[in-house]
Design goal:
Layout: H1 2-14, H2 18-23, E1 47-51, E2 67-71, E3 76-83, E4 85-86, E5 90-91, E6 95-98, E7 104-107, E8 113-117, E9 119-120, E10 123-124, E11 131-135, E12 141-145, E13 150-156, E14 158-159, E15 166-170, E16 174-177, E17 186-189, E18 194-197, E19 202-203
Antiparallel strand pairs: 1-2, 1-5, 2-3, 4-6, 6-7, 7-8, 8-11, 9-10, 11-12, 12-13, 14-15, 15-18, 16-17, 18-19
Length: 205
């Protein structure tokens, strides 16, 4: 949280228009979010997340509180209510959002779906060594970078995060329940695990 706070403060001090946009970032109703609407934005445009007034006692967004994205000038690009939740605070290249159908996806600044994001534990996959896991339309696992670009296309049945430049993956296997845990915990089982580098090339550990 400290990093986020300092980052927002930095933008506030360096972007002349941010003060105005930030003042619009906490709106009291979805209707207010659509006063001014831009349909497309260029590649250099920065979008920031704005929310309703739904906060918990610590001042953080409540999960599923309405949210959207605006430009630094205060124009609404993605209105409140379009998505169930927005995980990305500053949209530079891509944002991770949760749809109203409970699908975790990445979108670009013009609200185009880029890919599904792997759901890890209670949220979207973490970035490890510049990469995070994504899901193809066929359910296979691949990897995207921190710019929202797919660098290893979805092709693996199961795949772990990168560590020390390599990731453990397999193209076949089965998801099983941990014994004596009433199916609460599950694990991946395969006899064909191997390792890849950040280019998707098969390597020896």
């Amino acid at each position: 949280m400290k990093t986020t706070y300092l980052y927002i403060l930095f933008i506030f001090l360096t972007e002349p228009s941010f003060n105005y946009a930030f003042s619009r970032a906490k709106l009291s109703s979805p209707q207010q979010a659509t006063i001014r609407k831009t349909h497309t934005v260029d590649k250099d445009t920065i979008l920031i997340k704005y929310t309703s007034t739904s906060k918990n006692q610590s001042g953080y967004d409540i999960l599923a509180a309405p949210a959207g994205y605006i430009t630094l000038q205060g124009d609404t690009v993605i209105p409140i209510g379009k998505y169930n939740y927005c995980y990305t605070d500053t949209l530079r290249n891509y944002a991770i959002v949760l749809t109203n159908e409970r699908e975790c996806i990445a979108i670009d600044k013009n609200d185009k779906k880029l890919f599904k994001v792997f759901w890890f534990d209670t949220g979207p996959d973490y970035i490890k060594e510049g990469l995070f896991r994504i899901i193809g339309e066929d359910g296979k696992i691949g990897y995207a970078n921190d710019k929202g670009e797919i660098v290893i296309k979805p092709q693996f049945a199961f795949g772990f995060p990168f560590e020390n430049g390599i990731a453990k993956v397999t193209k076949s296997g089965e998801e099983k329940s941990v014994p004596s845990c009433n199916s609460e915990y599950r694990y991946w089982d395969s006899d064909e695990w191997f390792y890849i580098n950040t280019k998707g090339e098969k390597v020896n550990k």
